[in-house]
Amino acid sequence: MEVDDLIQEASIALWRNREKLFSLGSVQQAALTWKIARNAVIDALRRVEETDVLPEGHDIADDDRSLLHELHEQIGRLEEPDRSIVRMQLEGYSYEEIGNQLEMTEKNVSVRLVRAKEKLRKAMIND
User: Fold this and answer.
1) Which domain holds residue 112?
2) Most CB contacts within 10 A, which of 29, 44, 106, 118?
3) pLDDT band at 5 (very low <50, low <70, confident <90, very high)
């Protein structure tokens, strides 16, 4: 997709939301403009990616299992308590429940989780 096409998509989205934009203050307008334009570009790029054709016989389930296995390996490589925080969060525990279980504040859980996710992201991209 060409840059001009992406700009056009963003412009259309902004035009559709013009009444809402004009009803806001300048700071809020800037934030909403950025959000609308960014989302329009992301949506346009997703539409392009959805049209990509996989080779015949390609098993998406195998890819998913492989990525899931890799993710669990990377989680296992995290140091404690980050490993426990990530696992508990994946099991659906709230920050409060994780904090109570691991004797730390919700804020500490949140910060450690963000940092652990960043480590996992980097590890998954580099491997």
Assistant:
1) 60-126
2) 44
3) confident
